[in-house]
Amino acid sequence: MVLLGAVILTALAGRLGAPYPAFLAVGGAALAFVPGVPNLRLDPELALALFLAPILLDAGFDASLRDLRHSWQPVLGLAVGAVVVTTLAVAVVARIVVPDMPLAAAIALGAIVAPPDAVAALAVLKHAPMPHRLATILRGESLLNDAASLLLYRLAVGAAVAGGFHAEQVAPSFLLGVAGSLVAGPLLAIAFVAITRRVTDPPTAIVLQFVAAFGLWLAAERLQMSGVLVVVTFAMMVARKAPGVTAPRARIVSYAVWDTAVFVINVLAFVLIGIQIDPILARLNGTDQWQAIILAAAVFVTVTVVRIAWVLPTSGLRGFGLGKTGDRSRLGAGMAVSWAGMRGIVTVAAALALPQAFPYRDLAVFTAFVTVLGSLILQGLTLSPLLRYLRLPDDDPVGREAGRARAAAYGAALESLESGEDCASTDALRAEFRTALSEAEAHEEGRAPESLPADAARRDAIIAARTKVLEMRRQGEIGDDAYFLLEEEFDWAELNATPRKDS
Description:
By secondary structure, the chain is an all-alpha fold. The protein is built from 21 helices and no strands.
């Protein structure tokens, strides 16, 4: 029932052009007040591994090293500078509202709510596209700010639970752990690709991917390294090494499974934190409830204002703006990025991972959830209208590169066919590639069309063939086993002849 409700909420979010995590957060909060819903608790030691390991592996695999290098200044500024400033600002506000809160606990709260989540922002971008460079900055920020915030989080939580912090004792092992993580991730990725390169069975390949995600995180934490850095660097290296050795069938199926897994993980995270809200409020008396509400509101305002104050003055940095556009476009880019700072699953997972002995744990969990909910509703529902209003220019770099690369690929394909045997089918295929290359030569940017000339006819033929086989099955001329075999063949053939945007 929970997953069914999540699917309905996600569909509603899609129709409204809103980020689906916003609706999941509202649904999770509503569950807290439904009679009979059990107060489920997750072992804090498992929360980060369960929620963040697969999320970060998926995000790291999709990251572009080249684009990140081009935008390293704004990405580093947001991922490290903004996280540190936000953490400190929230810690100050928390100490003002709750004077008895230990400094370490206040810093931990700041680290929990500091990192924005790109999942929500990218969900909005499906309905109101943002320039590619700005989207790259948001993806890079989301990938790296998790590492910065969770490193601060680990140190602060440890100090809060232990009752003290000694930098001279922690610093050497901390720095060694970070350095070790940056080395271990890529090396393990190379080993993983070498070991799994002969695995062509999709279920086996996918299971190994999930085993790697959880296993790497747990091993890194056990060895006092950063699970975030190990998993992210591992995923980025696998993304560079795997394409040439992964079986196409396994890759296509894997993408679908990982998209589903990320969605289910988001659902579970928001449900688990949402159902804790009512018990938390029940444990607080009247005065404490007001204090919790005031703290949550103050923290939400702080993280929103700090991000705007950090981003807008730096929107003129090289790599942040939009090419050679003017001051107005740079200001618009800064407004878009500053308003795309919705909090999400990283904040939720960090709050759930707080140990039971953490000072003011209920207050921290409540504040984290309200910050996530507030940012997803306020910013998530208004980001799309803001982007439409700003009308930021975009020269479609991905489309241009893909079009030119497609032309080069068609050229290589045609060259391989020229040395092949002469027959009617080969001649027809040569003619298709020559026509596509002629279109590319006529295009001012040399872009080749996504579809080959006969793809539309192929789709019509496949539909007719599929209809005939389905009729034979209904009439009992063929059995289910034969039908499913042919259906899979038709599916692959139709996907091959269908442009990506229509598939």
